[in-house]
Amino acid sequence: MASNAPIGVFDSGVGGLTVVREIMRQIPNETIVYFGDTARVPYGSKSKETVTTYSRQIIKFLQTQEVKAIVIACNTASAFALETVKDEIDIPIIGVVKPGAKVAAETTQNGKIGIIATEGTISSGIYNELITKINPELKVYGKACPLFVPLVEEGLIDDPITLEMASRYIKELQEYDIDTLVLGCTHYPLLRHTIQKVVGDKVNLINPAFETAVRLRELLLQKNIESNTLETNHKFYVSDGAEKFKTFANTILPCDVATTKDVNIEQYK
Amino acid sequence: MASNAPIGVFDSGVGGLTVVREIMRQIPNETIVYFGDTARVPYGSKSKETVTTYSRQIIKFLQTQEVKAIVIACNTASAFALETVKDEIDIPIIGVVKPGAKVAAETTQNGKIGIIATEGTISSGIYNELITKINPELKVYGKACPLFVPLVEEGLIDDPITLEMASRYIKELQEYDIDTLVLGCTHYPLLRHTIQKVVGDKVNLINPAFETAVRLRELLLQKNIESNTLETNHKFYVSDGAEKFKTFANTILPCDVATTKDVNIEQYK
Predict the structure, then answer these.
(1) Which domains are seen in chain A, by residue range?
(2) Are B240 and A146 in contact (CB < 8 Å)?
């Protein structure tokens, strides 16, 4: 695989752009091919089987773009599909959960870690599994926050309603005296300010996106497939609503998203 | 087509059950085959092309169940897909928008009608089109309420957060002095109590589900295909999460939903 080939990144919708943003900051030489499954968003309330089927279709599409590596920039798909799909392809693939679990385990001082994520990610128990594999002494408490994604998509980023929902969701975790809170859905870093207000300054917020970009960089070095060009030509694909996606992407990314294309994702199987 | 054949009813998810409830009340002899597209819910933020493709797949599935008629129990799919798909099949098919528009036009006293619905239904302009076709003097004001569906699905039916969101969404319509408000999404009748609190007793709330069941009954009589059996064996299918759907269905329907089956809907084309 050519070193200057692009990196495929996918998510159920726009949330994965917070991961793309970190990759662009940390490894600006790399070209991104992004796919957002906006026709079938959200993934967080869907079953493992459905999310795995959808992830498999997207990987097939990304392979037509000749990507050299894939990042699953969605916690639910990382939780449900990564272990299955990684054995089906011959290029490196990473998710966002393992990097997030690692940095949470390294950050906590009192050994009590909270996870906020979608229903799917929480019910999978994957953060608990990976964190206690690093250190069995650590305690992990999860809470599903199904309204956070629609609140972000409605643009209620810094709003009393979002603050009230965040207080309700996080109250239970605060009773466990957590000192570290993982933003376990790629939409949630967009609510960082509101969430920090609820938990106070003493709780560390973990954004797996940062650590995922670190891990990706290590992987490219390891496999000796870092890009050596300065000309990046990022591409953005979605399964529905290309124009709407472009507008949102331009508010998140440091580069100009000039075009976004629609893909009929169901044809990839 | 046999008169005792079932009626196919579909929606993006659980909302269409409010229509099924009305059909069961008004024409209890009819057997229902319901399909909820829970893997790809919500439809309200998706494009016309995507919603039409999905509707076509579901109609193909319902036809394998040998239905004698189809009800599109989803405003977005009625708005986007009905006109296209009705020419592709040889059984009667109706949506929820036309019945809702008719009763709204008949109900208003001051000629000012508000519509609350998904982004898709509002942007289609279909309620405006159908209501002014009945009476060009009527004024129609639409407002998309994207958070209502997730709020219902989170169970925040009678909650201060839902009341606050309803106040914000409906405020604009109140400034137009509407006396009639159409609940233009099949989820919204579940928020009827909260919405009535916001608009006050002087505004009539229109639930298209009731009028849709009336229209269906007329249609069956007209075509002479009413069922004459008392044995109904309703069937419920979804594209994901059959167990979760069953629990929700049992809180809405007057009959016991004993089993719900998963269908791989993408294979119908």
Answers:
(1) 7-95+210-267 (3.40.50.1860), 98-208 (3.40.50.1860)
(2) no
